[in-house]
Amino acid sequence: MTANKAGQTVKAAVKAKDISEGILRHLQQSLGVEMEEAGPAEFWEALSLVVREIDLQRIRATRKKERENKARRVYYLSLEFLVGRLLSNNLHNLGIFKEAEKALSEMGVSLTDVLEHEADPSLGNGGLGRLAACFMDSLATLDTPAIGYGINYRFGLFRQSFAGGRQVETPDGWREDSFPWGIERPKRKQLIKLYGRVAEHAGKAVWEDTRSVLGMPWDVPVTGYNTETVNTLRLWESRATEGFDLNSFDAGRYQDSRSQEITAENISQVLYPNDNHPAGKELRLIQQYFFVACSMADLIDRYKRENGDGWDHFADKVVMQLNDTHPAIAVAELIRILLDEEDFKFPDALVLCRKVFAYTNHTLLPEALEKWPQRLIARVLPRHMQIIHMINYHFLHSEVDAVWPGDDSMKRRLSIIEEPDRPGDDQMVRMAYLSVIGSNKVNGVAAIHSKLVQDMLFPEFHRIWPDKIVNVTNGVTPRRWLDHCNPELAELIDNSIEGDWRGELDLLSDLKPFANDEAFQRKFAEIKLNNKRKLAAIIKELCNIEVNPEAIFDVQIKRLHEYKRQQLNLLHIMALYRRLLENPNLDVPPRVFIFGAKAAPGYLVAKSIIHAINRLADRINNDRRIKDKIKVVFIPNYRVSLAERIIPAADVSEQISTAGFEASGTGNMKMALNGALTVGTMDGANVEIAEEVGDDNIFIFGMTVDGVSELRSRGYNAWDVYHASDELKSVIDWLGSGDLSPEEPDAFKPIVESLLDRGDYFLTLADYQAYSDAHDRIVQTWKNPREWWRKAIINTASMGKFSSDRSIADYNRTIWNMK
Ligand SMILES: *Cc1c(COP(=O)(O)O)cnc(C)c1O
Questions:
Q1: Alpha carbon nearest to ligand 1 atom 3, residue
Q2: How many domains does the chain divide into?
Q3: Quick one: which of 559, 553, 558 has its CA closest to 593?
Q4: Is residue 658 part of a domain?
Q5: How remote is the CA of residue 131 from the centroid of ligand 1, in Å?
Q6: pLDDT-derived band at 255, boundaries 50, 70, 90
Q7: Is 559 a catalytic site residue?
Q8: Rounded mean pLDDT of 254-260?
Q9: Has residue 258 got a pLDDT over 50?
Q10: Cα–ligand 1 centroid distance for 657 (angstroms)
Q11: Where in the sequence is the domain holding 613, given as residue range(s)?
Q12: Which of 132, 175, 644, 750 qualifies as a cystine partner to 608, CB 3.0-4.6 A?
């Protein structure tokens, strides 16, 4: 039952009968089919259109209320929103899931089948984009006035399949059939400029000879849980403008075979498939500026509509959150508008800018910190490059100089412009520095990560502004990641504790008294087993592999990256297999190792790891000698809708990054919430998960951040570890031998080289033994079911902190100053 804070129901007053009538109306009038001819895809679209009508009505009411309250609004700028399927989420949030089920079943149609017909909008790579989607859910749930701004990519993240075990990428034209959730808003289109040059007229800078691109907004309604608030996710699509098309522009420049052709339309064409690694392509910079400029113009228009022309109240009404440095050019864009279009003086413009921006840092990885060639920015956005120099000059000569007077090496170190190591190379613009300097607050995404941002990444900035860098630990929405994806567990919780845990996740702690209750444990275990049976059927269908639902389901699902260390998992499975071959009667429970991961198409080592896991899976799954004690499955095309099937079925959650490299992780939270036990390093949010569940209820292993830096300063030699361990040596030799890929014996050389010849930067070998020991502890615990299920229940009961509602409440309080 959904009841709002005042106790009255906020369910949409919609009955099954209204829904059936709406479906019939849309089948006939919107889709032009009779009910008898309609298949699940048509029913999906018709039902979505019915729900959309309710959303739109509520959006208007939300906007009206916000205008009356003259509230501050949060603008969440993100190049990625990994929203996942929307129909089921909307039905749940509006409280009409059951009514919709009834309406369809009276028409002889199954809602479950219909829901499967929704394409999964993959407008993001991984955790960063999914976080933005969870935050949109919680912003609406907490009635925070908010608009998300991003790009309506024609092609989302590629679809992944395997050929001979190798990753194959195909385009994901996700909205080709139809996307009823996105509503085009031509009235709110924007025209933005690119290229050209800066002239001076009457003492004012004028950006002229530019090319124009049109930004068309598509609005996606975002419902919250147990509230009438519906917010908007506004996604920009690029279009050519009449007369000023980029197509005809300077064709000569693109003779150069290295550069892709850039046209007005292809700006919003594809999502770059790199996770934690910037592409450095001109089109990517233009994407960033395109969505930032459209969004900035849009929010300024809205501010003026609601508040009149003056800028006095701007900072009270507007706060922009930069999700990573991808939208960092917004800092220069706002100052450009204030200087060139609004008669501000530079110091006042910078002061205002610093009141309205906040920046979320997602990574410490040096190669993931965005830098753009100064020459590229100067060519694409000449006025912005000038403004970046103005910001930099002010920063170095008044702010840095005040703390380190006359210290030129410090100025060089902190400059937004990085000087090249070799003369003649490009100067680079450090987008993270621009973001820090332009923002009011900077946040890391888990406690340990924020501390490292203060002490290791930006120590000097922390000296200058000791209150600027703060922590907001990430969270996930318990609606999608427990209620919707694990309805049986949700029901068990409903029957066991009081109160609205979906809206107040801390209430889950009331489950703790049941942790040792045998009857409750049985029910909890039975639900997990049911979820595993369902996943086993999916694995059979997608991979044609039979897995035993009674086995331990050991899950590693996340982008493929060496720092996430899927290769550690791989080496360990190889060792387990060899142990079983040596001793087929080993007393170990059956285990299924489940992977889901996409590798960036240009990331060769990552692709080689996928290939190796698939080849190993073939070998192990077909070896009768080990009597099904181990199975390995790599489920293709990992994405939100698959995560929703895998997570409720996980017994073990693999969170094994090198300490200091995973900023937070959110997959770790989702799996623990659904009763999986974590095997993990002291990294990212694992640290806080361990704190919440207690050391006895998590399998922590391996080096800490301090251990990593000590080892590095002592001098780490991967070969030493290799020579010291017979087991490790034998599996690495096997991996390099070509035995798993006889037709291409060198296929896994990139992995072996990374582990040995190139020094094992992510310390995989250094953590191997500790990891193997942790797995031994997992097996021992599994052999005692009462102990296992007690720990699993305590995990679910301890995840209250990791609701994205708590994250948003933290942002509201510590960063956005929302009332
Ligand atoms: C939660 C989620 C992620 C993030 O997983 P991590 O383990 O935190 O890296 C990535 N992709 C999808 C589809 C997700 O749902």
A1: 127
A2: 1
A3: 553
A4: yes
A5: 9
A6: very low
A7: yes
A8: 42
A9: no
A10: 14
A11: 479-802
A12: 750
Residue with the nearest Cα to atom 11 of ligand 1? Answer: 126
- Helices and strands (H and E) in the chain: how many: 32, 23
As a whole number, mean pLDDT of residues 732-736 equals 98
Reported as a single tens digit per residue, the pLDDT across 135-169 is 999 999 999 999 999 999 999 999 999 999 999 99
pLDDT score recorded for residue 7: 39
In a domain, 777, yes or no: yes
Half-sphere CA count of 707, side-chain side, radius 13 A: 13
Q: What is the mean pLDDT of residues 335-342?
A: 97
| Catalytic residue, candidates 62, 325, 473, 666 | 666
- For atom 1 of ligand 1, the residue with the nearest CA is 667
Tell me, what's the pLDDT at 259? 45
- pLDDT, residue 17, reads 94
- Residue 447's alpha-carbon distances to 76, 654, 807, 812, in angstroms, are 22, 20, 12, 18
Domain membership flag for residue 581: yes
How many whole angstroms from 622 Cα to the centroid of ligand 1?
30
Q: What is the C-alpha to C-alpha distance for residues 112 and 104, in angstroms, rounded to an integer? A: 10
Answer whether 127 contacts ligand 1 (Cβ < 6 A). Answer: yes
Q: CATH no. for residue 632?
A: 3.40.50.2000
In a domain, 520, yes or no: yes
Helix or strand run (H / E) with residue 190: strand 190-194
- 564 included as an active-site residue: yes
Residue 569's Cα: distance from chain center in Å? 22
| Residue 670 Cα: closest atom of ligand 1 | 1
pTM of the full structure: 0.97
Q: Which of 362, 480, 561, 791 is catalytic?
A: 362
The first and second tokens of residue 441, run together, are 């607050």
Look at residue 487 and tell me whether its pLDDT is greater than 70. Answer: yes
